[in-house]
Amino acid sequence: MNDTIRKQIMTVRATGETNMLDTRMVQVVANRMGLYELVVYLEEHQKEYANFILTGSAGEEKS
Q: What is the pLDDT of residue 63?
């Protein structure tokens, strides 16, 4: 996860519009706000995103 994605997650979170574990709604809010990198990231990295939301750790998933 790069800094852009992290900042976009925090931007959506700051709106208070959705439960951050509801990834589809996070995508809706992000898309509306023009945070397209986050929309794509959520399609491709759901496990990493969930780990970040639950633990605050942005470490890369190990194989």
A: 41
